[in-house]
Design goal:
9-stranded mixed beta sheet, globular, EC 2.7.7.27, nucleotide-binding, transferase
């Protein structure tokens, strides 16, 4: 079958394919990724982390999407099959799940980010996209990729790199772009001790977001060259991008130019929720009166798989036994039964029983808090059953002995930890 020809002019998204790299574990999330890949971790009350990247592609007009998976992919694949199966091949749309399957050789899983794309070149060629958007599936942000595609075409770049402005003092944790006054990248430094600053801004550096736009055929040529190099790490950030910076034309795209913001969002929002503390804080921030990330923006919806559940329910109305939630996000199927919930997120099907007090908690689906418990600054994994009268968040030494307690005092609790009590 001959692939349909892709558009040559704007809107460029209709002629592009998004390739999402979703195979990483995210080991700094500790037990949250024991059973699922980082992109499959729950976020924001009802979504998964990968839903933000997928929704960005969908809202930008991209209708061809491939998702490469590897580490403990079942939860992620099941989520995408349930929630992202609406693409129509008859309308020039496609959604491909691309698990590492030893397609190149019997002992070759995905060896790096570049190799994940290389191993699927034949599948991509069948769709004949004009441009490739390479994306990470594990960040929280809203971005219009059409703006980045337009810059790529207009600048004549070999690669366009999505970049985020960060304080120079913090840039040592990122891959940093050294650019000239025309946004051309003149050097790429991986986690430099002395990060270069932006032109005219001595206190700000430009960090790579792991987002790249290529002309498809140019990308294939670079990937084949890289695959033939025995010294390559098969990685975009370590190999492909630095080589193009040296021998081609690499241009920086500033996130602020394509970040999608509603009227209530004052600053461009991007988070790597790669640690338990960062994950906890990004979720709890959503309970603010005016959160930095607007999930209620109908112009840029975050799509996800939505389970069929009854509405949330709040019961009992006595002085010491009143079901209530304040400054909290409560999902469908939850029951707050004579308990107090504050500054918290209750994912689908959570139950909080009588006389309990929950404050600053991220409670994943189908967890249950037993009677007369007090929980503060906690993350409860899916399905955890908190026993009656358990107290967490008031004795740091005791918490650290029983649970995963972070430097900032957040306790991550799994069922196996509860079973050991």
């Amino acid at each position: 079958m001959t692939a349909a020809k892709t558009p040559l002019g704007p809107p460029y998204a209709r002629g592009a394919m998004a390739f999402i790299l979703a195979g990483g574990r995210g080991s700094r999330l500790m037990e949250l990724t024991d059973r699922r890949a980082k992109p499959a971790v729950y976020f924001g009350g009802k979504s998964r982390i990968i839903d933000f990247t997928l929704s960005n592609a969908l809202n930008s007009g991209v209708r061809r999407i491939g998702v490469a998976t590897q580490y403990k992919a079942h939860s992620l694949i099941r989520h995408m099959q349930r929630g992202w199966n609406f693409f129509r091949s008859g309308s020039n749309e496609s959604f491909d799940l691309l698990p590492a399957s030893q397609r190149i050789s019997e002992d070759a899983w995905y060896l790096g980010t570049a190799d994940a794309v290389f191993q699927n070149i034949d599948i991509i060629e069948d769709y004949a996209p004009r441009h490739m958007i390479i994306l990470a599936g594990d960040h929280i942000y809203k971005m219009d990729y059409e703006q980045m595609l337009a810059q790529h075409v207009e600048s004549g770049a070999d690669v366009t790199v999505g970049c985020l402005e960060v304080p120079r003092a913090e840039a040592h944790a990122f891959g940093v772009m050294h650019i000239d006054e025309h946004d051309r990248i003149i050097d790429f430094l991986e986690k430099p001790a002395d990060p270069p600053s932006m032109p005219g801004r001595s206190d700000v550096s430009l960090a790579s977001m792991g987002i790249y736009v290529f002309d498809t055929q140019y990308l294939f040529e670079r990937l084949r060259e890289d695959a033939a190099d025995p010294n390559s790490a098969r990685d975009f950030g370590k190999d492909i991008i630095p080589a193009i910076v040296r021998h081609g034309k690499a241009v920086a795209h500033h996130f602020a130019r394509s970040c999608v913001r509603s009227a209530s969002e004052k600053e461009p929002y991007w988070r790597d929720v790669g640690t338990v503390d960062a994950y906890f804080e990004a979720n709890i921030d959503l309970t603010d009166f005016v959160p930095a990330l607007d999930l209620y923006d109908h112009n840029w919806p975050i799509s996800t798989y939505a389970e069929v559940t009854p509405p949330a329910k709040f019961i009992h109305d006595e002085n010491d036994r009143r079901g209530c939630a304040v400054s909290s996000l409560v999902s469908g199927g939850c029951i707050v039964s004579g308990a107090s919930v504050r500054e918290s997120l209750l994912f689908t099907g959570v139950r909080v029983n009588s006389y309990s007090e929950v404050q600053r908690a991220v409670i994943l689906p189908y967890a249950e808090v037993g009677r007369s418990s007090r929980l503060k600054n906690v993350v409860l994994d899916r399905g955890v059953k908190i026993p009656e009268k358990l107290v967490v968040g008031e004795d740091a030494e005791l918490d650290a002995a029983r649970f995963r307690r972070t430097e900032k005092g957040v306790c991550l609790i799994t069922q196996s930890m509860i079973d050991r009590l």
